[in-house]
């Protein structure tokens, strides 16, 4: 299946570069371009893309507001927010708006391509450089909240996986720590997301702290 992609950026050179990169992949196709946020909402409505690459800083309507409107109209569309800045408020706001991913424009081309494929498959994408900051901010509360009842829906192994995701472990690192195959870890994480109604990995990180599963100063590992 070919993933349909819309590129939204106010810089023509950036749009041209992304189109060249994406159209060079056999399973990806750029079906539309947008020059600002309002244009992005319109183009997405006309082309029904699977994934939208959305610049944050655009005229008329910024990328975060455009993502909110777009997702309200087409919740099945996946939006990856692109920015040249690693700004805490942009990352946090993007997550609150329901986007699937956050990438810096300085990301390697292959990472960009992989992100589009992962988003198209319903997986969350967050630039590795901003993960520590996300974890630090969600983990900076002075005391852990009461343990959420939703955690009772998880099996012990699923709970271990969620705990380690919350601490910033990759799937490969979780697999090594829990003596599991990486595919098994992906399966467990998928079940966690389904049971808890979470859209992607960034929201799983937030939930791990907000639910009281982990708190600042916890030790590293599958068990507390």
From TrEMBL:
This is Response regulator transcription factor. GO terms for biological process: phosphorelay signal transduction system; regulation of DNA-templated transcription. One of its GO terms (molecular function) is DNA binding. InterPro entries: CheY-like_superfamily (IPR011006), NreC/VraR/RcsB-like_REC (IPR058245), Sig_transdc_resp-reg_C-effctor (IPR016032), Sig_transdc_resp-reg_receiver (IPR001789), Tscrpt_reg_LuxR_C (IPR000792), WalR-like (IPR039420). SMART domains: HTH_LUXR, REC. Gene3D superfamilies: 3.40.50.2300. Residues 4-120 form the Response regulatory domain. Coiled coil: none annotated. CDD domains: LuxR_C_like, REC_NarL-like. Residues 147-212 form the HTH luxR-type domain. Keywords: DNA-binding, Phosphoprotein, Transcription, Transcription regulation.
């Amino acid at each position: 299946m070919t993933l349909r992609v819309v590129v939204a950026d106010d810089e023509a050179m950036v749009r041209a570069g992304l189109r060249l990169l994406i159209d060079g992949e056999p399973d990806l196709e750029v079906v539309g371009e947008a020059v600002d946020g309002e244009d992005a909402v319109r183009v997405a409505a006309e082309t029904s893309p699977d994934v939208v690459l959305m610049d944050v800083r655009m005229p008329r309507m910024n990328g975060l507001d455009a993502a909110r409107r777009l997702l309200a109209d087409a919740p099945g569309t996946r939006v990856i927010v692109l920015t040249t800045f690693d700004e805490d408020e942009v990352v946090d706001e993007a997550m609150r708006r329901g986007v699937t991913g956050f990438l810096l424009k300085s990301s390697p081309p292959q990472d960009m391509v992989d992100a589009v494929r992962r988003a198209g498959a319903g997986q969350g994408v967050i630039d590795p450089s901003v993960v520590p900051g996300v974890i630090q901010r969600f983990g900076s509360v002075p005391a852990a909240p009461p343990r959420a009842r939703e955690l009772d829906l998880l099996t012990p192994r699923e709970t271990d996986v969620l705990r380690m995701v919350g601490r910033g472990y990759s799937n490969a690192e979780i697999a090594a720590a829990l003596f599991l195959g990486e595919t098994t870890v992906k399966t467990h994480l998928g079940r966690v997301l389904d049971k808890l109604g979470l859209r992607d990995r960034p929201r799983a990180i937030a939930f791990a702290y907000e639910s009281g599963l982990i708190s600042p100063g916890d030790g590293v590992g599958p068990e507390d």
